[in-house]
Amino acid sequence: MRAQFVLSEIGVGLRRNLTMTFAVVVSVALSLALFGGSLLMSDQVSTMKGYWYDKVNVSIFLCNKSDAESDPNCAKGAVTSEQKKQIQTDLGKMSVVDNVTHESSDEAYKHYKEQFGDSPLAASLTPDQMQESFRVKLTDPEKYQVIATAFDGRDGVQSVQDQKGILDNLFGLLNGMNWAARAVMAMMLVVALMLIVNTVRVSAFSRRRETGIMRLVGASGFYIQAPFIMEAAVAGLIGGGVACAFLVIARYFIIDHGLALSEKLNLINFIGWDAVLTKLPLILATSLLMPALAAFFALRKYLKV
What we know:
Elements: H1 2-16, H2 18-53, E1 57-62, H3 65-70, H4 81-93, E2 97-103, H5 105-116, H6 120-124, E3 133-138, H7 144-151, E4 157-162, H8 163-206, H9 208-216, H10 221-256, H11 261-264, H12 273-303
Antiparallel strand pairs: 1-3, 1-4, 2-3
Helix pairs in contact: 1-10, 2-8, 2-10, 2-12, 8-10, 8-12, 10-12
């Protein structure tokens, strides 16, 4: 009988405050969708870091005749055969080096033509203007500075470049976007909590006569509060379900179908469905507990039930 009464009161409360309940559902859905999206973005950035950092090379560019005339680092002239052999030998002795690949000026010119053959500059370049280089794969991409310290400024070396620096700029941008999404999510959560508190207060005020009678007949405080708390929890759970559906649909249409980014951007290792599905229980639990706790404290502080 008591359970039936509580359930009937939940239905009455949701119907009486239908507009505010809808606002709670929408705000909870948006905030938790952003919450889940930010978690998935963090997973995506971590996945991309693991994928790309494993492919990072350190490039040691060698001086050519053109550099000897214009670059201060190559003031002593183009790299000699002895200098190249010594650089390769020293690289082979370093424990942080996984493997070394030599790229000749002809190979560099060929690769440039393959990538930028349509640019006006490509027509004016000749193979002897391209730089020879050693492409160094490190056992740990974080150890770039060891290579830079050992070879930067050495005779015959024009520069030492780390591809990780380029990737760090990209991941910094992605992390910045992720924190911006979290800031919006936090504001949406505050709005959702304020709506929940106001909805509970309005609902309790509209039923103050019933709650007064229940107090007079000896009903416990928890029994009086239970319908209001469960109303908020149900509205929040609906919003959480909408947020979960939004994340699943977004993953399906953006990555797998529709935009099909997984097919168009083969260079990006996208997160799988397991990453999405593991976030759904957390979102549902948050959508249930957050409104229930907000309603509980609102009743204690404002209504003195």
